[in-house]
Description:
This protein is an alpha/beta fold. It contains 17 helices and 19 strands.
Amino acid sequence: MENKRISDKITTEEIAKWNNKVVTITAPTGAGKSHFIKNNLYDYAKAKGERILMLIHRLNCIEQFTMELEKEGKLDIIDIRTYQSNEYFSLPKDFNFNEYQYIVCDEFHYFLSDSCFNQRTEVSLERILNVENATKIFLSATSKNMKEYISGVLGIETINYKFEYDYSFINQLTFYYSTDYIEKYMKQIIELGEKAIFFIQSATKGYELYKKYDKYTLYNCGKSDSHYKYVDKEKITNMLQNECFDGQIFITTTCLEAGVNIKDTQLKHIVIDVEDVDVMQQCIGRKRIQGELDKVNLYIHAVNNKKLGGKITQLKDMLIPIQYLLHNGYIEYIRKYARKEQSRLIYDEVLADNKVVKKVNNVMLYKKKCDIELYKEMVKQGYCKYISKLFGNKKYSVEENIRRSKELKPILEELENKKLFKQEKNILINALNVRVAGRQQKTYAKLNQGLKWLGLPYVIIPKRTKHERYWIIEKIDNDKIA
């Protein structure tokens, strides 16, 4: 594809135009974001006697990228720090943003995705954007919401570059609702003798799987987690150096969801038990595709509409005190909410005259609003269909549907081409058990939707004569199901 690599499109002439502006680069994993920084931008900056600050949000990423730069002898121009080191109340005395002419924010979806549990991502974003004498470069494969926040909410003009996504490496896309399937996949992959990465949101759940299958697995989680003592640090370091892990199964939390490369054509499966969609996409991108024949089977934990609806309600309730503060002011907010637990979206700020005021974390607030709109769209389309569209309308299967289809097949075969009256209709209705908002559906139209959703090659046709009304079940071609 033309201009697929970043270095092909962003030339030195382009870099010269940036001149202390805000630049966003949206590109899929493997498009050369890191390569561009440590080669094209490095050469340009070095020729002009300038310096680059690279901000990274995960320690594993820092370790891997530092090893690369050290090996290539490029730490003379590029300094690497974590975002978190920039989020204290005061910056370290030995650090000054003004020493750098380029500030590179790697995986800048961090400001939103981590705001759910880190209340200070807004601090580092504000400090970076306030640096006047440096070009700010924001890189990510999942940048949509952050780009809209910077340009739309903050009103900052940006120079934007976007590169096309190619998900043809996904061999098979499978969704599962029950987490019981996670262990089932592990058993199957071990029996096949193939390799897989399991991204598990819960460090505890991941450790329990590791403990059960420790002969075949490597375990990883964040350093701040209590389970970190079970991490084999030497093996993780070797994995970062070699961009490949030993053993069959690598179990990790999302501490590895960005920046780390796994280059291994033997890695055939990625299992994801992660809620955040941006983080999910980043997890998939840890496998770097090594050619057209390098494919992966993807398994994603799906969310049903009931749970999505609950998330929407929870988020809306969370925003009520925020809206009250914004519309009624600090004093009225204190009167109403003084004895209630303060929302994580609200924090205290000490002013120059030592007065304390309530402030809203705008990055976190924007993240919650984005999540509400996202969940609404997922409810409208259905989670599985929404995610499949992200991957270019990839054809998919649902584990629970496969199981139900097997159970329903003999019933449908038994009823095929027979006249279905009340008793037979009830058998079919209860067997299909199609429900909308918890209510069982009994019309042939809704039952046909259920058959289509399950991928079953049957259709219910209503019939009537002068003396009777009934249904007929007929088999159809598979290509007519879609």
